[in-house]
Amino acid sequence: MEANVLGSLSDIDLRMLRVFCTIVDAGGFTAAQARLNTSLSRLSVVVRDLEERLGCSLCRRGSSGFQLTEEGLELFDAAQLLFRDIERFRQQANQLGGPARDHLQIGNVDSMLSLSYAPLPLAINLFRQRLPEVRLGLHILRPDELEQAVLDERLHLAIGAFHHQLSGLRYQPLFEEEQNLYCAAGHPLFQRSDTDLNLEEICNTPYVGRGYMAENQRPHGLYFLQSATVYTMEAIATLVFSDSYLGYLPSHYAANWVARGQMRALLPQRLAYRSTFHCITRQGQEPKAALTCFLQALEQAQQQLAQGR
Asked: Among residues 119, 85, 123, which one has the least CA distance to residue 104?
């Protein structure tokens, strides 16, 4: 590919490159839509602008599916190297002041503190005992954002329930979390007994969907009447408490509201499901003492919490 346009590299160029790489990693525009929380038309505009900036075609879409051109493949490989170099520069710049400047960026999904056997808080404690000089950054993001941030090397590791496994990432299973379908006390279904409820009625009741879950990842394969789309557990709970929607929530997260009679699970024997949580790291990333130490602390935390259960 001829370097005929990018005489200088702006923040806009970097954003377009990240979007392009996400589309490639996802295998196409449609799959990348949920990860980037944007429309197909917006993604098309970004790629078109990038193609105009470079003066070449990067990909083709049609009946045969999404395909990179030769130039698109070259650009993807070059962009991956660029993002790794940016992260390497950031790490080196942070270390200019000596070991005290070392840092570790970790990510987690929201609403996990009420799960007693989630290992992250204990892992942080163990890690700090061993490397107290390392500066930690903790980022609470949705699952698809965590995956992309680890791929881009903006995070060194992340913990969450990931609904697909991307190439370029290593997934280490940690624990499982139960999810139930809930309604609030003012919802028309709240006072109905489970024996008086049926799946057809529940599936035709307004439901809060998660924007980062693809169509083929529906709980139990059921088609719910998705009337709202959100990206955090807090947002689901808020809409459930409007008495207007049903929504899936982690059982530990909803437990206090259930105990106070403010929320109930619908047909838990039929509709509950379990999500597997993984720790993800980027394949092929350079060894980093702080990351190795944290992964060891995470494993030790898991073992200690398992013994206490």
From this structure: 123
Global pTM value: 0.71
Contact 119, 255 (CB under 8 A): no
CATH topology of domain 101-175+276-308: D-Maltodextrin-Binding Protein; domain 2 (3.40.190)
| Paired residues of 138 in beta bridges | 106
101-175+276-308 and 177-274: identical CATH topology: yes
CATH number of 177-274: 3.40.190.290
Cα separation, 110 vs 142, in Å, equals 7
Q: What is the pLDDT of residues 21-77, one digit of tens each?
A: 888 988 888 888 877 767 888 888 899 989 888 889 999 887 777 889 999 999 999
Report how far residue 84's alpha carbon sits from residue 90's, in angstroms, rounded to the nearest whole number.
Answer: 10
Contacts of 128 (CB under 8 A, 6+ apart): 136
Q: What is the pLDDT of residue 215?
A: 60
CATH top-level class of 11-93: mainly alpha
- Whether 287 has a pLDDT exceeding 80, the answer reads no
